[in-house]
What we know:
Blueprint: H1 17-23, H2 33-40, H3 50-53, H4 61-69, H5 73-81, H6 87-93, H7 100-103, H8 105-110, H9 116-129, E1 144-148, H10 152-163, E2 167-172, H11 180-183, H12 194-202, E3 208-212, H13 222-228, E4 231-234, E5 240-241, E6 254-256, H14 257-266, E7 278-282, H15 286-297, E8 302-306, H16 318-326, E9 330-332, E10 335-341, E11 348-357, E12 360-371, E13 374-377, E14 381-382, E15 392-393, E16 396-397, E17 410-412, H17 424-443
Parallel strand pairs: 1-2, 1-4, 2-3, 4-17, 6-13, 7-8, 7-13, 8-9
Antiparallel strand pairs: 5-14, 10-11, 11-12, 15-16
Helix pairs in contact: 2-4, 2-9, 4-5, 4-9, 5-9, 6-9, 10-17, 14-15, 15-16
Amino acid sequence: MSQPNPGSGVVSARLKTGEYQDNFSDLHPPLDPHEALVAADRCYFCYDAPCVTSCPTDIDIPLFIRQIATGTPEASAKTILSQNILGGMCARVCPTETLCEEACVREKAEGQPVDIGGLQRFATDTLMQKGEHPFDRNAETGKTVAVVGAGPAGLACAHRLAMHGHSVRIFDSNLKAGGLNEFGIAAYKTTNEFAAAEVDWLLKIGGIELELGKSLGKEIHLKGLLDDFDAIFLGMGLGGVNALGLAGEEKDHVLDAVAFIHDLRQAKDLSTLPVGRHVVVIGGGMTAVDAAVQSKLLGAQNVHLVYRRGREQMNASKYEQDIAASRGVNIITNAEPIGIIGYGAVQEIEFAYTIDGQSGLQRTDDTFRLQADQAFKAIGQNLTGVPSLLKIEGRKIAVSENGKTSHANIWAGGDCASDGDDLTVTAVAEGRDAAEDIHRTLMS
Length: 444
């Protein structure tokens, strides 16, 4: 067993003051007007545009790019926002490289797609910076809807319901709205508190109230909401973090990656965040990559990201894997943790190599250890406080078309629903579609 290394330790202020700002600057700086025109000019404006088919929110991409090309970015923004009210955030964090841009005809022909994400950000930022809200609210219907969760699904649902004239009240366990966009995305992807600004802008539609610091199953309950509201939408995401199930998991500095990113996103001074010299992140999804990259940006000397299967099976896209590698993160695949070693605090993590056999993933007898004074678990989340009156599928709320649950007056979307896939853009689509179905149901 390893002895404590006096040169290691989890400390803050590893970097000089200016380095934090440089490391956490905007991953993709915005296009200026001339750059936007040049990028828009590359679009073929395909009639049967494959990029639209690949967009979870069905944005008319050729139309909004043509509107930019003709000098009307505000009209372009309205085209985007009519389908995706969180189009500004999605332009920053949506994996366009595996969705619309991967399907782009330019990508197929030349290996270089139209910069759809950059153009979407240009249009939506132009409109939002003017402080305008492009949609009007219909006349009051007298119907009320409770939305549980102020994340992408809940916000999209609430906005569309408010547009239709319903009165909406959003409940969220956090003291700040935004959900995943506010607490769960790497800081270098969404700078200058954009998530909070987008929520404030969205609420300008009117007809939406926020009640923060209220959790389902504690301060609020489904039965009470059913008595007080005509319909309910559940979009509270996933609250629990999966455990490794290993002895030593309770040792100091073995942490949840979700909590780490949450604290980082809310920190006013990044130099106050403690980070290890030798960091190990266990997992293969976006959260794992975000935790690993940001550990490196905070000053960690060595960062290893370890995933139990092969690279092609990682939930994080190849693009995100490449970002991690470019920042100095060492990605190790086909290895799973079998032991956490240390005196009080973690010092090493032992792994066993794995192979994909006929009966699934198999652990081999070939093992290795990584030095670690800090470790992050990023192996998925689970739904906590599941209401007993709803049908569950796997570890999520079972839903059918348009987010309908097993209860006639309750809908669900986003990560907490059975068809959620941990993407902001998908959550927005599910919240929007559920809102339309709730509206049809309430008005029939």
